User: Which sequence fits this backbone?
């Protein structure tokens, strides 16, 4: 009896464990049954084993099934393997599927490979398709730049402030590797500046602002970008300050300071030369004084050597006095010499 009881207990425990295992398996499989049935009745069947393996590959089966159903109902057959591969690559399956459906309805060629490549490149493929269908308007300059106008100076020196609106459409074929909106804004801004700068005067620009649009469009600014420029419209253009006059005034002031500096330099040079000449005169006078100081010595030597007598000395003094008197008469004043020595 004890043996039978023990065997019954083991059987019950085994049945219980087996039942728990079967229940766990049933619960695990039940979550895929609904998706499998949903895909089957929608005409976008997915193998049941594939749904189970998706769980082991860290793929969310619901995303794959729902997007496959959505594409199938739109007339596009995308296999679960392609959807799963893009999911595992880190792509946005929902955006890619919706973009392909939107492109198909708009008669835009968008293969699965191109769409996934654009998505994996970090671009919003759904927004790109929408922009391709419904062109969008870009403000130039953009609000993010912190500037409200594009400033340029015409040939007559008058500054003009312009704002433009650029209508663009996404070019799907150039979306991968193509430049972004910032490049379009920069090129349009550069085109506006160069067009205004080449104008003969600001009045010509104000009279025909559409010439700016025509000139800029002819430059093919959308080359190498992910967009196609449809139109460039000058939204507003205002007259600013007279930059040319301000520059001329600044140049005149700079010239005045330069000429003043040159004149001051010449004056300082003249003063230095005058001082140098005065120093030279004083030097020569000192040499004359030194030479005159040698005369008494020479006369003394002449007296001692007998080469000069006392009468020669008086005769020389009379000549000197007569010379001083004549000079004083010529100047209109009394003579400076000693006239008494002449008698």
Assistant:
């Amino acid at each position: 009896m004890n043996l039978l009881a023990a065997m019954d207990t083991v059987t019950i425990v085994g049945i219980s464990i087996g039942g728990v295992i079967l229940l766990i398996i049933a619960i695990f499989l039940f979550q895929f049954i609904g998706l499998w049935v949903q895909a089957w009745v929608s005409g976008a069947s997915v193998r049941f084993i594939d749904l189970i393996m998706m769980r082991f590959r860290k793929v969310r089966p619901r995303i794959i099934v729902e997007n496959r159903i959505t594409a199938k109902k739109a007339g596009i057959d995308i296999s679960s393997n392609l959807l799963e591969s893009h999911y595992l690559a880190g792509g946005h399956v929902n955006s890619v599927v919706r973009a392909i459906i939107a492109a198909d309805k708009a008669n835009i060629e968008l293969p699965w490979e191109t769409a996934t490549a654009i998505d994996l490149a970090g671009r919003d493929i759904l927004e790109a398709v929408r922009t391709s269908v419904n062109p969008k308007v870009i403000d130039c300059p953009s609000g993010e730049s912190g500037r409200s106008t594009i400033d340029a100076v015409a040939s007559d020196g008058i500054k003009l402030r312009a704002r433009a609106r650029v209508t663009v459409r996404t070019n799907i074929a150039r979306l991968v590797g193509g430049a972004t909106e910032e490049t379009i804004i920069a090129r349009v801004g550069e085109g506006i500046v160069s067009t205004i700068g080449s104008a003969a005067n600001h009045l010509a620009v104000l009279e025909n602002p559409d010439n700016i649009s025509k000139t800029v469009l002819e430059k093919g600014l959308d080359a190498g970008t992910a967009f196609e420029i449809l139109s460039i419209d000058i939204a507003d253009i205002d007259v600013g300050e007279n930059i040319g006059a301000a520059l001329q005034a600044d140049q005149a002031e700079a010239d005045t300071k330069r000429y003043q500096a040159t004149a001051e330099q010449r004056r300082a040079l003249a003063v230095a030369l005058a001082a140098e000449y005065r120093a030279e005169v004083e030097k020569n006078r000192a040499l004359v004084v030194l030479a005159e100081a040698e005369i008494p010595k020479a006369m003394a030597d002449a007296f001692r050597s007998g080469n000069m007598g006392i009468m020669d000395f008086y005769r020389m003094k009379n000549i000197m006095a007569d010379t001083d008197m004549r000079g004083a008469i010529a100047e209109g004043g009394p003579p400076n010499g000693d006239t008494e020595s002449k008698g």
In short: The first strand starts at residue 136 and ends at 140.
